[in-house]
Amino acid sequence: GAGVSQSPSNKVTEKGKDVELRCDPISGHTALYWYRQSLGQGLEFLIYFQGNSAPDKSGLPSDRFSAERTGGSVSTLTIQRTQQEDSAVYLCASSPDRARLWNTEAFFGQGTRLTVV
Amino acid sequence: DAKTTQPNSMESNEEEPVHLPCNHSTISGTDYIHWYRQLPSQGPEYVIHGLTSNVNNRMASLAIAEDRKSSTLILHRATLRDAAVYYCISLRQGAQKLVFGQGTRLTINP
Asked: Which of these, B97, B90, B88, lies nearest to B30 by C-alpha position?
């Protein structure tokens, strides 16, 4: 596909269960970002990857949240022991590897809507 | 990155131009001005960006004040599909993430 792909598009889970959210960035994009957007709220930065390393994890809200990226491509955001306040849309974005974010564009996926019941 | 200030909401009519303002009075010489928009139930999408000169692309125009303390995103002929939240973001060279504020919710009336 030509764009950033996220799966699943919707996920309903029970409180206390672990969930994994997947992001397939645009091929060749080395920068990858995770954001979350709670209902009616703004976009909250979670973590940034350059290649497989994460220079900025400052937005992860607690140690229940973790993310990894393998092969400089697919990324997985894992939430352990989910809580109701984790309910939100989780968005992934990627940006080209030969340009810098400040002088290029980021491409966002459609997001995964997570509902914790 | 400089702080940006935008009106919470704006309203316009279909087929009319829309001017969305953004104030960034603390901007530095190496801060780029970016605009993204988020259509309902979708992820954000890039609109345009610039440093000093006015910029045009197929989606919009970006007019940057001479002192760079403000800018205006111009949609030349609004359609219903342009109804979205528009985010103005200041990005310093070396910045590694987009920081979104609350944006401007644009409503387009038929």
From this structure: B90
Could you tell me where the DSSP H helices lie in chain A?
A: none
How much is the CA Rg of chain B, to the nearest whole Å? 13
Minimal Cβ distance to A91: which of B43, B93, B96: B43
Judged by phi (left if over 0) then psi (alpha if -120 to 50, else beta), residue A71 lies in left
Using CA atoms, how far apart are residues B60 and B48, in angstroms rounded to an integer? 7
Does the N-terminal peptide bond of residue A8 adopt cis geometry, omega within 30 degrees of 0? Answer: yes
Judge whether B92 and B33 are in contact, CB under 8 Å: no
* Structural tokens at position A12: 């309903």
Restricting to B residues 49-68, those with a Cβ less than 8 Å away from any Cβ of A are: 49
The tokens for A84 are 């109701």
- Best mutation target among A43, A45, A112 (most B Cβ atoms within 10 Å) is A43
In tens digits, chain A (117 residues) has pLDDT values of 579 999 999 999 999 999 999 999 999 999 999 999 998 888 999 999 999 999 899 999 999 999 999 998 999 999 999 999 999 999 999 998 766 888 889 999 999 999 999
How far is residue B50 CA from its own chain's centroid? 11
Nearest CA in chain B to A37: B43
